[in-house]
């Protein structure tokens, strides 16, 4: 009897050891750069991009190894940086999610040509496709996550190249710039103190965007409510660094001089793809937030308009929900990635 018990105990110990070793091997594989051509640079690659204005290079950085889940991150702006996503470092590695930081052309860590011919949706879509090819991403592993302007770019990419995607995440972005402007003007603006809203509108009417008082009003009353819901002195260092690195030339040309809607002669002012959403068949997660600059009801509608959509609502979040509602945002993104990977994705209509 003692011998049988001893054998059973030994077998149980081996099984436990095997499970543990398997888990350790998975983590070791995730962290192993030894077989990669970017080991010497810590995962960083400067990828050549062909454009109508010549060849330039864009900055990318891969974190981790996962042959089945590779998430390319499209930052907002246009003209800000990958730094808005740096909080992912605290969550994705432990879940085995491979993710790729990427500064689009014109952004801080990439080349910054001064040529407005380059700042079009179509040209940026082709840039993303060139990045995809250079990184070896394909329909068996390629997830695209775009937030704000990055959400516009993600949608535009999917309209043309969704056959290359395994999954799509549209974060904090409506499918219509005119409806975004209307929401800012008719819903968010009136929530501001009346005198503040009137001052903001006066500055914009006079195109006095560089007036320090204009920026002060936006930061104090608007940004801390609808961009990132924390006092300015508590904003994460990565977010402050991102805004410090913003390229205003690209931003103003496409988005306009204000976060309070898309203003002036910005090229995105009339962008609207509501009628095209139904053509997206790839599994899609749409993320909206209660306090966002974007209408969360519109984004919930988007999740139903695409053919295989799911909606993630961040009740405590704003435009940068990955920071001010992490308890909802991060687990929701990870669940989507793993559900799609495990063929367990079910659209929620």
From TrEMBL:
Top-level division of the source organism's lineage: Bacteria
Pfam families on file: Abhydrolase_1 (PF00561)
Gene Ontology CC: membrane
Domain AB hydrolase-1: 71-325
Assigned keywords, A-Z: Hydrolase
SUPFAM superfamilies according to UniProt: alpha/beta-Hydrolases (SSF53474)
Classification via PROSITE patterns: PROKAR_LIPOPROTEIN
Biological processes annotated in GO: proteolysis
InterPro entries: AB_hydrolase_1, AB_hydrolase_fold, AB_hydrolase_sf, Peptidase_S33, Pro_imino_pep
Active-site residues per Swiss-Prot or TrEMBL entry: 148, 292, 319
GO MF assignments: peptidase activity
Presence of the UniProt keyword Hydrolase in the record: yes
Family: Belongs to the peptidase S33 family.
Protein name (database record): Alpha/beta fold hydrolase
Organism: Flavobacterium amnicola
